[in-house]
Specification:
mainly alpha
Length: 132
Amino acid sequence: MAKKTDSTTKPAAPSGAAPAVPTPTKRALKPAVPTVAEPAAPVPAKRTVKPIAKTVPAAKKKAPPAKARRIVKKAAAPAKPRYTQEDVALRAYFISEKRRHHGLPGDEHQDWIEAERQLAAESTKPKKVKKA
């Protein structure tokens, strides 16, 4: 099969001829370093274009369907107790003393849990203000 030739390519130079010298381009003619220091032009600040919001009268606005509406609640930070472990330990001690005095069954773990429960209940109640 014969090789197809592209009509846009130049014919190869004869083998005995000198290689062709490329012609200089505009980039090659420019000096690498400018001879005169030119002040740099200030770069204009980018301007952002805000889209114009379409205003719709309140009467024409429709509420989204109930399924599409989502109520997003922020996770509440855990309430910091108003009592310390020392308070719990002291209350648990008095509970255990009362329990032993009356001869009731139980152990230190139950006393500790009861002390925490009592202190938590007391800390959530609003404080009564005494009238003078």
